[in-house]
UniProtKB/TrEMBL annotation:
Protein name: Ornithine cyclodeaminase family protein
InterPro entries (UniProt xref): ODC_Mu_crystall
Amino acid sequence: MNLPYFDSTAVRAAAPWTAAIAALEQALLNVVDPEDDSARLFSPAPNGEFLLMPASNREYSGIKALTVAPANPARGLEKIQGVYILFDSDTSAPLATMDGNELTAIRTPATTLLAMKHILAADTGAVHPRPEKAHVLVFGTGVQALNHLRAAGAVLPEASLAVVGRRPERVAALIAQLAKEGVHVRQGTSAEVARADVVICATSSPTPLFDGGLVAPGAVVAAVGQHGLNAREVDATLVLRSDVVVEGRASALREAGDLIPARSAEEWEAIHPANLRDLVKGEFERSAGKPCLFAGVGMAWEDLVIASLVYEGGTRP
């Protein structure tokens, strides 16, 4: 069997930001319930661990198989590497393989910007008046920060984009790379949190990046760089003063260290925060005088949606 393989270039070409966001949105409206998503599966590997993420729907099934090797960056290699395998749900026959890292690099920002789009739409301006030109502040200088800035530039073309990072040389390199692509980003500072309309945390930091009390009422914060109950990019102060939206309630209870232990699992179950499907279906309302926090950990159904988009775009007329 000669399966087609979609490399990183082919994956990105078949899933531009607007198409990726639209595919996720339609999946949530029509076929996906995030609460039915499979949990991640972990297994030991020689120098780290395997991470497996299976998902299925009526037409397609798939699994993202990743390796996580913490020592790799010191050797000049990627910490996380992997491949995606797409199957036909009816016959269980494999259809294609594709670059797992590029798939992740697209689906995570697409999911974040989908959430931002609908959270901002849930605010008609009567509760939290917004400036015409949003100020978007992104924390991080890695692949996810880079791609969140790319996605924000495509989805919010009138926005002012700024990036905050610990290493000035990496910030400068990221800004220069985006400038070549026609995306204008300037160097920001953590002090800008107080006047940002949208704050996106896309880092590997295990501790909060800023004082959550500084976030303006009406601002939207996305914490998407970390998963695991021992890692958090935002503090309990922000969590406790915010409306909260999650990708899925079950996945958040398993892996959202940004939310737990700010509140216990029992408290979150009682609160029953809106998930992405609720958000897209218009079943989420913002509260007056509160920021809104979107907490994402990455889910397998998102990979499947984007992999399906890549496959159909690459093989069908």
